Amino acid sequence: IKGKFPDVHSILIYKNNKLVLEEYFYSYDENTPHQLRSATKPFIGGILGIAVDKGLIKSEKEKLLPYFNSIYPEIANLDDRSKDITIENFLMYRHGMDCQNNNPESKGNEQAMMQSKDWVEYTLDLPMVAAPGKSSSYCTGCALTLGSLVEIATDENIEDFAQKNLFRPLGISNYAWTFEPNQASRTHFSQMYITPRDLIKLATLFKDGGKWKGKQIISESWIDKTFDTDEGDYGYLWEHKYFIVDGQKYNSYLASGNGGQKINIWPELDMI
């Protein structure tokens, strides 16, 4: 209120299935869709899960590159390690590629990727530095590639597939999303714009095992695998963090965007 934190636009706390705090600042209100930046990525993971649930993708254990063979017949730096990359490796950022988002020395850093014409092709062309599945390294290209995978597998735009299978069942209509992993996205970064209240709906869906008002939107098994990850690591594009307060440890599953957009699920506290 004193203007010391001009980048805080909204704070919401949802506990025990009740909205207990909701505050907006600096001309934002409950009807204003807010940019998510990279906090979009975990929801791409959920959308991909729906495609797996529907059998449009056989399993996240499948090899990734064959899905892109017809689009990118000649992948640069192709070797046995890249041929072994699975969909799940990208979901957990365990790709083995030279891709570290915030490392300017990494060939796959976000700024370098954004200079390229086709961000998915650029990602798939990155050289390997390790076997996939060994350790995680945050890489924007992974999430964008998985969004493109949904489009290949479903034979429709990811926005349309998500609208039918995720947003509409949750009663979410006041949002904007244009997924274009290429130069056309230089100003909007393929991100979602969505209201904080609707973000709580999406987070509640994950907190409650993929169910919304008694209907299974994402399979419980996909949600279980999403959150079955080591502390400090990534599970199906969510980040697993924890905090210790007064000697008590609290797990958090986090969607985070560049700019301070944070959606935290606190399972022990039944809180978002």
Question: Gist?
Answer:
This protein is α+β, with helices and mostly antiparallel strands. The protein has helices spanning 41-53, 80-83, 87-91, 110-114, 119-124, 140-154, 158-167, 196-207, 220-227, and strands spanning 10-15, 18-24, 34-35, 175-177, 192-194, 211-212, 215-216, 234-235, 238-245, 248-257, 261-265. Helix 1 runs parallel beside helix 6.
Question: What characteristics describe this protein?
Answer:
globular; 272 residues; single chain; alpha+beta
Count of extended strands:
11
Instruction: Give the helix tally.
Output: 9
Helix content: 25-40%
Instruction: Give me the secondary-structure category.
Output: alpha+beta
Rg calc:
18 Å
| Uncertain stretches | none
Order of helices and strands: EEEHHHHHHHEEHEEHEEEE
Q: Which shape, going by the Cα principal axes?
A: globular
In spatial order, strands of the major sheet run 8-9-10-11
Please tell me the overall pLDDT.
96
Largest sheet: 4 strands, antiparallel
In percent terms, what proportion of residues is strand?
15-25%
- Cα distance, first to last residue? 23 Å
